[in-house]
Amino acid sequence: MLCRTNPVDHPRLVPDATQGSNSNMIKAGIFDVGGVLHDTSIKYIYPDIITTLGITKEAFDKAWKRLINRFGKGDISEKEFWKVFIKQTQAVKPLPKESLFLREFIKHYNRHDNVLSLVQKLKRNGYKVAILSNSIPPHARYQYEIGIYQNFDVVVLSHEIGIQKPDPEIYTLTLEKLGISAPEAFFVDDDNANVEPAIKLGMHGLVFTSYRVLCNDLQKLGLKI
User: Fold this and answer.
1) How far from each other are the two terminal CA atoms of the chain, in whole angstroms?
2) What angle is formed at CA 67 by the lines to CA 65 and CA 72, rounded to 5 degrees?
């Protein structure tokens, strides 16, 4: 599908993201995964965990906040996560055999094929493309299996390297793997809090809201799409 602009759409670039003469130097695009390459399914996963384990939302929130970042940095395994989570939430129902991280994730997985096609077009036009994602092992394994990552030149996943967005180090590492400087890259994420560090490093930051808006944003940057 080709990018088409619409006069009623307005680019969602972070302020000052495209100022200066760097827009014609862009060599690579860096993409978040959840919310950009596919729909997020958090609104389905959370209540499923609460209902399945028979815990309160308050207990869920406290335990989740303590543990999910550790899991997302690869500090603990999924087995360790659930062992501590069940203890802290005082779950009254047993943990099912199938992963509670995957059950609703897979059921509601909606791939953004138009964005993935855009990534392929960028590659054909000579740009490098990378993934930079806060990830957990079960979600990453599934996405490796269905080929979401396969067409990217670089894949940086938080649980594999022990660093998460918005830590500037994970952005710098991605740039190093691409072999480019910050002004030579644009970064796309659906969370403005993750885009801001990229801007501070000198990248062109784009807050993803839709495929059409992303097309407009990239065209404003002067990219060949």
Assistant:
1) 11
2) 105
What fold is seen in the domain 22-39+110-220? Rossmann fold (3.40.50)
Instruction: Quick: pLDDT tens for 115-161.
Output: 999 999 999 999 999 999 999 999 999 999 999 999 999 999 999 99
Do 64 and 165 meet the contact criterion of CB atoms below 8 Å apart? Answer: no
Distance CA 178, CA 196 (A): 20
Q: Judge contact between 21 and 134, C-beta under 8 A.
A: no
* pTM score, whole prediction: 0.91
Helices 211-220 and 113-124: crossing angle in degrees, nearest 10, is 30
H helix runs in 125-161, sequence order:
137-145, 158-161
- Residue 72 in contact with residue 4, Cβ under 8 Å? no
Using alpha carbons only, how large is the chain's radius of gyration in Å?
19
Closest by CA position to 161, among listed 51, 74, 43: 74
Strand partners of residue 87:
none
